Hints:
Structural class: alpha/beta
Number of domains: 2
Strand content: 15-25%
Shape: globular
Largest sheet: 7 strands, mixed
Helix content: 25-40%
CATH class of the largest domain: Alpha Beta
Number of strands: 22
Bound molecules: nicotinamide-adenine-dinucleotide
CATH architecture of the largest domain: 3-Layer(aba) Sandwich
Strand order of the largest sheet: 14-15-16-13-12-18-19
Distance between the termini: 74 Å
Amino acid sequence: MICHFIDNNFVPAVYGQTFETLNPATNRPITDVAAGSTEDIDRAVSAARRAFDNGPWPRMTAAERAKFLHRIGELIEGRADEIAEVEIADTGIPASQIKKGAIPRAAENFHFFADMALEIGGENFSAVGSFQNYTVRRPAGVAGLITPWNTPFMLETWKVAPCLAGGDTCVLKPAEWSPLSADVLAQIVQAADLPAGVFNIVHGFGETAGAPLVAHPDVQLISFTGETSTGQEIIRNGAATLKRFSMELGGKSPTIVFNDADLERALDGAIWQVYSLNGERCTAGSRLLVQADILTDFTGRLADRVRRIKVGEPADPMTEVGPLIHPDHWRRVHDYMDVARGEGAIVEVGGDRPSAFPEGNYFGPTLITGVTNDMRVAQEEIFGPVLVVIPFEDEAEAIRIANDVHFGLAAYVWTGEPERGRRVAEAIESGLVWINSHNIRDLRTPFGGSKMSGIGREGGRYSFDFYTETSTIHVASGDHQIPRLGTGGMD
Ligand code: NAD
């Protein structure tokens, strides 16, 4: 059974409740997991609070904390195959994408933020009159970290690493559909000998374990990654205790292909960007905008390739698309096929369970054409291997369609004209834009969404803006005038 991790100990739920986590390839249970409630959250937050108020962690130098974080990174590297196996079985993401992508990135998150913390300092404001002013950054407190089920290990470490590097303590609430790899992280933290209470995990459901973490008065920060509607609920629930929020939410990101682009590379990028990670990717380029004069040719080549994407068991190294995370999610993705047809679009490839996979949550890579941007399949996040194609005439129309959506997380622009690339990229209302590339990240750069895709930025020093508190110190060095009340007159 998978337990909570509180004060460096693995413990069952206070009331002993459990839930099952399923293997998406079969929907058979893998194991039982402790189901957290308010009482479990109270225990974990108390441990994190004690570690923050009285423990050594926030009082260490960044260099001292960095040694622990590098150790965690190395332990992840040492157990990479095992973590990958756990993650593949729990999420259905293809082995090649987990092994080459998500797990090395998780280790890198620890190494990167350990080093980055050494560079983070305050600012000096040179003397104004007789004052020298400067800022210091302090650890901010206890952080609640709430994460989704897509690439869970990578996303958890993306929050845990800067949080700990900044000197905070935390309670992680992993997603209930993919809790297993977080347990390995707890084992690694225990092996790395972090002080008790610095890192805690409470497993369980959003309403019963996530909500009390958000509402807890001893938690100062909530970093959340998940659906926009959940983010809205969390902000409402955290209002009474005035939490600081970082919100990484949903997306419906455009891939824009101009007729002057290197079309072979654009094709590779467009396909990777929506069908990798089973399409369960926040930055998926799930709306493909193609210039009208190349629409027929480009869509034809695209359809050909999508038909040939290899669906298979997630552990098979040749698999390109595996099963979706959960039967409920499979139904949600499947329901969108009726929505598409109902609105007059054409499900040209895929759209259902491939016949070779009668069990599990397999969903064939899907291409939908005849789409206009006002359709629900163009406006709502489907979060599966589903691409909709929308034609545009010129640059102005491409920008208008790209922006005509309430999300603003990522965008991908393919063009042979660098100046146009820059113009379009800068006109798109989106936190992240790539020109002539799929999603390649530089961890120093800010990551996050605009509009309904999020609030705030994480990554590089931006993570430390969230996970630390800034104090401004004003130092008087001379005898500046102080107004003297109670002396018989203002002078
Ligand atoms: P979700 O919102 O359903 O759940 C995310 C987490 O929130 C889970 O741990 C869940 O238990 C918890 N939760 C649910 N209700 C809660 C509540 N009331 N209070 C506190 N916690 C609660 O999201 P999901 O389905 O797990 O993940 C998919 C979504 O995540 C997609 O919308 C995707 O775009 C988004 N996402 C965004 C990014 C990004 O960086 N912007 C990255 C990955 C995923």
